């Protein structure tokens, strides 16, 4: 089997690519994820589904051909993963952040990202304390079916899959093609905007014109993404990236869908180099060293940590590069409160700081309870066809939709 183990510093390069690409999506801006929680803008869902649909058959095809990967589907312990996903969704809707996007926001120069990072440390520390109690052990051990992907089991600590019931690695590749086809269909037909008709994929591949409503929503999106950022000219790259729908350019026609593919294939490359793409583990690693070095969960994290801290550094640097030189969204840590938050709670920065800190703490507590986040469970997990990844995603969606309805109203 063909294998490669990369040095830890390569994580900086991997994180840089993902951070720059996701910043171009707008994921570093908390308003983007708050609008996702309100189900007003489903860009993140469309792009993740597309990236997974592109990358999954590539990975399973290479595996069937004899290429080794660092398989890392999370264990399917139903209660802990489900409850953790619900809490993750609650915290995401309140704060507008998930673990990786806090570093992207910091790279964009967003002041409330500082409060979010401290909130993430608090949430990670809280789970570290709970983990070694009877309640914590019950959450991770009850109804635990181990690491399962569609069609196979992943033995703990091993670099291979055990196919179910006589299936082969070639059969798993066939399953991945069907899986990818289903995700492509969803990504194609799920409209990006609530009340719209087109996904990013459909608007790029079809000859159908955007409706006036969709053009207005995209203009509004460009305005909030660039609010408080650096100026850019009419013929600049930033103009094309921020208003790609409104410019005559074949380069930017496939802008969003190409980014989805880049992110998905980058995760495949990371797994080939025998590392894992995850963001929330860094918070437990930091909380453990700073506050709780002797706790059982900290010791587990210390032993199992890979290049996650390096990839988080790369994520920050990649976002800073994109926000400064490409999209020009760098806000230089000026006051910049998400519009949805302002409409509900006003322009008070102290209240926003509490929401950013508290929401991220809840989100991170849920992530560590479920042993994964938007990176480890949703992106990496769905790419591996992980059953726990799907449970986590469904729980996150339920948690964020209910919370956004309560917190922000009907928008």
TrEMBL record:
Pfam families: Sulf_transp
Superkingdom of origin organism: Archaea
Broad class of where this protein is predominantly found: membrane
Keyword set, alphabetical order: Cell inner membrane, Cell membrane, Membrane, Transmembrane, Transmembrane helix, Transport
Signal peptide: none
Matches recorded under InterPro entries: Sulf_transp_TsuA/YedE
Subcellular location: Cell inner membrane
GO cellular component terms, A-Z: plasma membrane
Keyword hit for Transcription regulation: no
Record carries keyword Kinase: no
Protein name: Sulphur transport domain-containing protein
Organism: Stygiolobus caldivivus
């Amino acid at each position: 089997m063909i294998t490669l183990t990369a040095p830890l510093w390569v994580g900086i390069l991997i994180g840089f690519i993902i951070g720059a690409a996701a910043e171009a999506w707008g994921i570093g801006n908390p308003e983007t994820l708050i609008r996702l929680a309100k189900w007003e803008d489903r860009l993140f869902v469309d792009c993740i589904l597309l990236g997974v649909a592109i990358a999954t058959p590539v990975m399973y095809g290479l595996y069937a051909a004899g290429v080794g990967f660092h398989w890392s589907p999370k264990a399917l312990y139903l209660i802990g993963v489900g409850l953790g996903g619900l809490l993750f969704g609650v915290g995401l809707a309140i704060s507008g952040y998930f673990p990786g996007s806090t570093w992207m926001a910091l790279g964009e120069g967003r002041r409330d990202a500082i409060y979010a990072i401290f909130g993430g440390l608090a949430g990670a520390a809280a789970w570290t304390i709970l983990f070694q109690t009877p309640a914590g052990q019950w959450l991770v051990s009850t109804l635990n079916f181990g690491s399962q992907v569609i069609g196979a089991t992943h033995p703990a600590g091993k670099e291979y899959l055990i196919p179910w019931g006589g299936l082969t690695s070639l059969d798993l590749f066939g399953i991945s093609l069907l899986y990818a086809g289903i995700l492509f269909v969803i990504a194609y037909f799920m409209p990006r905007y609530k009340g719209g008709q087109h996904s990013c994929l459909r608007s790029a591949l079809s000859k159908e014109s955007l409706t006036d409503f969709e053009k207005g929503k995209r203009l509004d999106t460009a305005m909030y993404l660039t609010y408080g950022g650096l100026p850019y000219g009419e013929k600049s790259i930033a103009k094309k990236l921020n208003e790609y729908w409104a410019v005559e350019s074949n380069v930017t026609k496939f802008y969003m869908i190409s980014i989805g593919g880049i992110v998905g294939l980058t995760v495949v490359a990371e797994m080939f180099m025998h590392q894992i793409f995850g963001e929330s583990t860094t918070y437990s690693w930091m909380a453990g060293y700073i506050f709780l070095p002797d706790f059982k969960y900290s010791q587990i994290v210390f032993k199992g940590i890979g290049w996650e801290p390096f990839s988080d550094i790369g994520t920050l640097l990649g976002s800073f590069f994109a926000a400064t030189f490409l999209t020009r969204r760098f806000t230089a840590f000026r006051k910049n409160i998400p519009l949805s938050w302002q409409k509900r709670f006003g322009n008070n920065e102290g209240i926003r700081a509490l929401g950013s800190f508290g929401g991220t703490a809840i989100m991170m507590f849920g992530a560590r309870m479920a042993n994964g986040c938007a990176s480890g469970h949703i992106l990496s997990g769905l790419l591996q066809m992980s059953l726990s990844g799907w449970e986590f995603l469904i729980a996150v969606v339920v948690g964020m939709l209910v919370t956004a309805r309560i917190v922000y109203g009907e928008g």
